[in-house]
Amino acid sequence: MSDRPARRLVVEADGGSRGNPGPAGYGALVRDAGTGAVLAERAGAIGRATNNVAEYQGLIAGLRAAADLAPDADVEVRMDSKLVVEQMSGRWKIKHPAMRPLATQAAEVAREFPRVRYTWIPRERNSHADRLANEAMDAAAQGRTWEPPEPQSPEPVPHTAPTTHRLSGWMAPPAPPTTTVLLRHGQTPMSVEKRFSGTLDATLTDVGQAQALAVAGRLRDVPFDAVYCSPLKRARQTADALGRDYLVDDDLRETDFGTWEALTFGEVRQRFPDELNAWLADPSVAPPGGESILATIRRVTAARDRVLAAHPGSRILIVSHVTPIKALTQLALDASPAVLYRLHLDLVSLSTIDWYSDGPAVLRGFNDGIHAAHLVEPGQ
Question: Among this protein's residues, is 41 annotated catalytic?
Answer without folding.
Answer: no
